[in-house]
Each structure stands twice: as C-alpha cells, then as structure tokens.
Amino acid sequence: MSNAKVLPLLAPEVAAEPCCPPLDERPLSAEEAERAAKMFKALGDPVRLRLFSAVASHEGGEACVCDISDVGVSQPTVSHHLKKLKEAGLLSSERRGTWVYYRVEPAVIAAMGQLLTRAAAA
C-alpha cells in the first residue's frame, strides 16, 4: 500500500488585466491613454526609472528601500519618487519593522510589455 497523498490543485493565478491593447491593434480610448500615460510619465524621470529597475531586477523580486536608495539623491527625494511609482501602479510596498519593501508585480511588466510588443516587432 502506498503512502502517497493526493495534493489539492491550486487555482491558477488570475492574469491581471493589461492596461491597454497593443498600440498597433486599435486607437486607445481616453481612459486607456490616461492609464498608459500615467505609467510612462512616472518612468519618464531618470531617478524613478533607476529605482523601478533596481526593484524589478533585485533578487527575489522585491527590495528594501535601504538596498535601492543609492541613486544620487537624498533619502526624502527617494521616498518621493517611490511614492510616485506607487501612485502610478508600478510598485507595491509592505512595511516590515522599520523598513519598507517594494516589489514590481509581474502583471505590471507584462502589461507594459504587451502594450509595446506588437509595435516593437513591426
């Protein structure tokens, strides 16, 4: 007789809704353009882009603010830029003790990629 246990299947992860269709699929609606512009505007600042990249590329997919704050600006300015990235929906955060950990949701990168994929392949 086997001691094997049957494990329950986990529900598949629900894919996040992309912000917009690929640029060459159809013209964006006003609402879609607003959402996309908010993301790209947040990434239009070099310091924010560096912070976003530091979080996205950090081991484990999340980074403590203490690990990413060396971007050539003061700590209050780093906090301001991280706040802007959160407001744009590009980062989420969690406080653990005295530190705040930031993560880029995989769906965010997937949605941004989908927006540009077809246009880039053309």
TrEMBL record:
Keyword Secreted: no
GO MF, one example: DNA-binding transcription factor activity
Keywords: DNA-binding, Transcription, Transcription regulation
Coiled coil feature spans: none
Limits of the HTH arsR-type domain: 28-122
Family matches, as InterPro entries: ArsR-like_HTH, HTH_ArsR_DNA-bd_dom, HTH_MetalResp_TranReg, WH-like_DNA-bd_sf, WH_DNA-bd_sf
Pfam family, one: HTH_5
The protein's name: ArsR2 protein
Organism: Streptomyces laurentii
Species classification: Bacteria, Bacillati, Actinomycetota, Actinomycetes, Kitasatosporales
